[in-house]
Amino acid sequence: MISPSNDLCMNRFWPRAVIFDMDNTLHDLRGARFAAADAVMAYCGVFGDLHFYSLNRNPPTLIEDAVSAYIADGGSADPEMCAWLYHTLEHTCISPFEGISDVLNTLNMSGVKLAIISNADPEDTKKRLNTMHLTSYFDAVVTPDTFGVKKPNPLVFIKTLDLLGVSADEAVMIGDKKDRDVFPPRELKIFAIHALYGTMEKPDKECTVSKPSDILEVLALTRD
């Protein structure tokens, strides 16, 4: 599904730069975390549901806290071992969404500058990109440490544009969170696309894609 209800989505254009969110936009972090949680629950044999211990939030120490709280429900498993198992399996399960590599390759071959703005920990960002073999595609990878701010602070978008040497009307932002990846850049006149395939949110009313390959349609980078 492509939702083309605004002029920018209907009147497609060739951007000079495309900026991606990382987690749940380039890859299915939610799926990787659920798979890791399933394995930890099987290992621990503790009654409860680790899925509901806020595994999708920061800071990084939350995983250790969540595992400890989960084990406290019963059983005698070692929290440190379970946390290590969780992190290892989450990392192993990281892979790009189907079609993302083709999108990045097409944009790269078309001379479009590519960047990531992620709120994830810098080390986690680096590990995930390396695991997916996507690092080489990006001209810039921006994390909270890069400029000392993170989404939805508009400064992170402004500084990333400066870093890429492009203006707001020459750039596109793509992400799964409307409140972090879609609405803030639009306030700066950056064309933003809601990556519905990576979220459980309702579709954005202006420009939404339901699979990665739709991004190329919106940007007019495919030809019949």
CATH topology of the largest domain: Rossmann fold
The CATH architecture of the largest domain can be given as 3-Layer(aba) Sandwich
Taken together, the total number of domains comes to: 2
Distance between the termini: 18 Å
**SSE order, as H and E?**
EHEHHHHEHEHHEHEEH
Please identify the structural class as seen in this structure. alpha/beta
Q: DSSP strand (E) fraction?
A: 5-15%
Question: What about the largest sheet?
Answer: 7 strands, mixed
What does it look like?
- The structure is a single chain.
- By secondary structure, the chain is of the alpha/beta class.
- It folds into two domains: 2-27 and 95-218, HAD superfamily/HAD-like (Rossmann fold); 30-92, no CATH class.
- It has helices at 7-10, 29-44, 62-71, 79-92, 100-109, 122-132, 144-147, 154-164, 178-187, 213-218, and strands at 2-4, 17-20, 113-117, 140-142, 171-175, 191-195, 207-209.
- It has a seven-stranded mixed beta sheet with strand order 1-7-6-5-2-3-4, with helices on both faces.
- Helix 9 links the parallel strand 5 (171-175) and strand 6 (191-195).
- It is elongated, with a radius of gyration of 19 Å.
- It starts with a strand and ends in a 6-residue tail after the last helix.
- The relative contact order is 0.20.
